[in-house]
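pipeline/complex-builder :: batch 7 item 3
reading input block
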Amino acid sequence: MIELNSVSKSFTLFNQGAAVIDVMSDATLSVAAGECVALAGASGAGKSTLMRMIYGNYLANAGQILVNGVDVARAEPREILQLRRDTLGYVSQFLRVVPRVPTLEVVAEPLLTLGVDPAEAEARARDLLTRLRIPQPLWSLSPTTFSGGEQQRVNIARGFAYDYPALLLDEPTASLDAENRATVLSLIREAKARGAAIVGIFHDAAARVEICDREIDVSAFTPQSAA
Amino acid sequence: MTPLLQVRDVSKWYGARLGCTDVNFDLYPGEVLGIVGESGSGKSTLLNGLAGHLALDSGQVIFDTRAEGPVDTVTMSEPARRMLSRTDWAFVHQNARDGLRMSVSAGGNIGERLMAVGGRHYGQIRSEAVDWLDRVEIDQARVDDRPSAFSGGMQQRLQIARNLVTGPRLVFMDEPTGGLDVSVQARLLDLLRSLVRRMGLSALIVTHDLAVVRLLADRLMVMKDGHVVESGLTDQVLDDPQHAYTQLLVSSVLQV
């Protein structure tokens, strides 16, 4: 479902004397449907960079990034947007929303965008918000004023609203209490069971062992010059 | 799928001074394209040129019309282009006063566009105007007030209602949130976002506010000195800018 072939990435900082920083070379990996793979490596090794390249958020300089057959490294913006709508989900660490939009709508939005019946989308959003213990009185409010933990749970609810065939998870259990952590882990298990290919960053070692089938050490992709 | 708008090699000069040049892009139905750049980068020139408010020096602006399919609007007859700008196109000015008739009531401002496309039944026009006031969150009791008695934010929302009442397929927006305070901006963003989604509109939004394009635009074009220096997915351009100027632009934004 997700396949990287010899992907490399460098940043050119034009405002700092056009310094070129090589951050990744020859990254190759593949994740099958129903598999959960953890990206491992020290801070700065390139876990987030790799994940952002798969999402099309960072441009790859070379190589191939196939998600369900679409090469994200070369696809038109329009194709990537379509891929993000119907195939590739991403739960980032930060919630970015239009102010004033109610939480229920924020969570239901990925489904609404796909043309799912509004009542059905809302039912799914209610179910997820309940499972993630967001108090019902908050559902009609914008999440912009919520606590950090609540925002993160809204973000997770949104990320799991639609059954994406491929999912990217950036520290989904960070800063969650034990009960919510357990809920998130079961959401991930359910996604695996229905055949989603999952790539995640988990600093939570217990969660990683519990949920992931294998680990990929991204420091293997660190260019020699920067090591 | 046929692009709604195909822009090919568009250039505009002001005498010897460059407005914008070599602009090329396709806009597909339902897509929102943001155009960013500093003052004088040519972004407003481009928008006004594409909308037919300024005569372009070269290039094609091909619009997928309902009746005849793709037609170059640059070489189209003036009456045909005017009809287009009253039906399938809409233009939201930065200054609402440029897009409204200040001496005509709010309801009249909305109704005028309906009458321009053949609406004649007073009751229907009025009820549609009232319905649109409601959609843009203006109290229906204000239907007979003149926009000169409205706040800046209300004027901007009225301008949007006036523009969208005829169900356009393409909306040109020039700094739609410029000059409004942030709470009003948030309200307007929410409104624009939901209208774009519910009506399946395509939009071109010129702005210097990167936060606005991050929330509204699918794709982004960065302009400098009349040239498009970078384009791509909005979050990719903002998070991994490839051009020196875009990097400067992104790193210059104050974090809140």
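note: Residues 18 and 243 of chain B are 21 Å apart (CA to CA).
queue -> next item
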